[in-house]
């Protein structure tokens, strides 16, 4: 009998564009829904961002207090270069970011991105990160999966 020959796979998967955030490449420390918020804090540690995915609204501006709780220096660097802040161990730095109009913006630590220290500003939900939490006063609902088309549909 002749065995089947492997190979030929792939083909059906589109390549991720440069700068795309892929949760499998991140040290996943969850997501936070910050829709409607104007400020938050982000923990930089050895070697992750917590939360890893910040979920917001298109065009939303957010002031982020970066707090390095690790033993090494880290950066918060947006792929487009608009923000690139180095934060020493035990230091805090404040930055302002704008969420994209669609999709997501990836951020990294320039020193440790290859080790999984990556995250994202997303208007497309938690991008697969675990444990999305709302930081709003009412505790939030964790997002509904985007199926709400409003009254009169369905």
What would you note in describing this structure?
The protein has no helices and eleven strands. With 154 residues, the chain is an all-beta fold. It has a seven-stranded mixed β-sheet, with no helix packed on it. Strands 3-2-5-8 form a four-stranded mixed β-sheet, with no helix packed on it. A hairpin with a 5-residue loop joins β6 (74-78) and β7 (84-87).
**In what order do the strands lie side by side in the largest sheet?**
7-6-9-10-4-1-11
Q: Helical stretch count?
A: 0
- Work out the radius of gyration: 18 Å
Kindly name the structural category.
Answer: mainly beta
What is the makeup of the main sheet?
Answer: 7 strands, mixed
Keywords:
seven-stranded mixed sheet; mainly beta
Short description:
0% of the residues lie in helices and 34% in strands.
Topology record:
Blueprint: E1 31-33, E2 39-45, E3 48-50, E4 53-55, E5 61-68, E6 74-78, E7 84-87, E8 92-98, E9 104-108, E10 118-122, E11 133-134
Parallel strand pairs: 1-4, 1-11, 2-5, 4-10
Antiparallel strand pairs: 2-3, 5-8, 6-7, 6-9, 9-10
């Amino acid at each position: 009998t002749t065995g089947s020959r492997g190979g030929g796979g792939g083909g059906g998967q589109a390549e991720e564009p440069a700068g795309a955030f892929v949760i499998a490449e991140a040290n996943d420390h969850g997501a936070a829904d910050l829709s409607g918020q104007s400020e938050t804090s982000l923990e930089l540690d050895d070697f992750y961002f917590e939360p890893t995915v910040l979920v917001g609204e298109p065009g939303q501006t957010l002031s982020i207090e970066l707090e390095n709780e690790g033993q090494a220096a880290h950066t918060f660097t947006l792929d487009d270069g608009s923000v690139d802040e180095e934060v020493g161990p035990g230091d805090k730095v404040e930055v302002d970011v704008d969420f994209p109009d669609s999709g997501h913006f990836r951020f990294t630590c320039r020193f440790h991105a290859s080790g999984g220290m990556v995250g994202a500003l997303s208007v497309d939900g938690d991008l697969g990160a675990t444990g999305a939490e709302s930081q709003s006063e009412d505790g939030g609902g964790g997002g509904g999966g985007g199926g709400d088309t409003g009254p009169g549909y369905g």
